[in-house]
Design the sequence.
């Protein structure tokens, strides 16, 4: 479990670094390079003789690769879309929900047939897909990319990578603070949901369907949220409030869910709340950032919200 926690921590802690690389070299280069880093990390992890090396190959390399893939992919909609940018951002942000919806049963099925080492090799093969997808990218905003690539000396580039002037942006600070507090409560139930099911006498096969329901409902909610945001019928802050309220209400009623059908209902409400929570805040953050340093500033945002993701489950475990 600890290598996975390290990967999760590095996927957020290296947000500013990954964002600066995206601003400096462009989405296509970073996307393909990060896919290769992830592949190397997963392949190396399948051959490690001890868990200490697994901390580096899986925890560090896989965490860094995942971080770079996520940040560079979130920058792509701004290069291609104007009128339907919010919907495009919502579609890209469905990655976490879609992976939980699609990959969870696939990985579980592979692991039942093969051991964990061969499962990692299969996952490394799947990582070739984003690598090929990055190769197909043709960035339209070449003027911005060339301006960034030709900017200043190496010393000036180093200073720009450490620039935290975005923290003087009131909108950014407010959104980051709200999201960090909300994430603290968001990440706790999903970590302990399987254990809660085991204590209620629900089998692991049934409990895995709860994560399937969370991923599917989150996927649908993000798409609906992006469509609603694009119409202008309802503002992004209102959608964010709706999502946070849904998450809070579901978590408040979770102790009353003692049967599997009620847990399925909770999982669906959790997924919808998550979708309506993350999609608006991503759109608000990305729209409030300057184009030439959008990746770096978005990486700083991911750094702050990674802190509750790392410590939240452990903190809740002391009370669970």
Sequence:
């Amino acid at each position: 479990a600890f290598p996975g926690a390290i990967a999760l921590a590095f996927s957020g802690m290296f947000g500013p670094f990954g964002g600066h690389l995206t601003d400096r070299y462009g989405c296509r280069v970073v996307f393909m390079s990060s896919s290769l880093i992830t592949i190397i990390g997963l392949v190396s992890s399948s051959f490690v003789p001890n868990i200490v090396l697994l901390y580096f190959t899986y925890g560090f390399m896989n965490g860094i690769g995942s971080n770079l893939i996520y940040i560079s992919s979130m920058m792509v909609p701004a290069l291609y879309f104007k009128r339907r940018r919010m919907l495009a951002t919502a579609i890209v942000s469905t990655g976490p929900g879609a992976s939980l919806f699609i990959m969870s049963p696939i990985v579980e099925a592979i692991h039942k047939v093969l051991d964990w080492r061969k499962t990692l090799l299969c996952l490394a093969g799947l990582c070739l897909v984003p690598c090929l997808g990055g190769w197909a990218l043709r960035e339209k905003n070449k003027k911005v990319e060339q301006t960034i690539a030709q900017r200043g000396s190496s010393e000036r580039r180093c200073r720009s990578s450490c620039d935290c002037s975005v923290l003087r942006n009131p909108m950014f600070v407010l959104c980051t603070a709200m999201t960090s507090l909300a994430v603290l409560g968001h990440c706790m139930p999903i970590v302990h949901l399987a254990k809660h099911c085991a204590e209620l006498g629900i089998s692991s096969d049934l409990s895995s369907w709860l994560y399937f329901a969370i991923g599917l409902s989150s996927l649908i909610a993000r798409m609906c949220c992006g469509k609603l945001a694009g119409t202008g019928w309802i503002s992004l802050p209102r959608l964010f409030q709706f999502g946070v309220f849904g998450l809070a209400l579901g978590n408040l009623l979770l102790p009353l869910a003692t049967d599997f059908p009620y847990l399925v209902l909770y999982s669906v409400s959790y997924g919808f709340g998550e979708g309506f929570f993350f999609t608006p805040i991503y759109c608000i953050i990305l729209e409030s950032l300057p184009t030439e340093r959008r990746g770096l500033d978005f990486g700083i945002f991911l750094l702050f919200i990674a802190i509750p993701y790392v410590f939240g489950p452990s903190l809740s475990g002391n009370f669970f």
User: Anything to note?
Assistant: The CA atoms of residues 3 and 51 lie 8 Å apart. The chain has 15 helices and no strands. Confidence is low (pLDDT under 50) at residues 143-156. Residues 164-319 form a domain with the Growth Hormone; Chain: A; fold (CATH 1.20.1250.20).
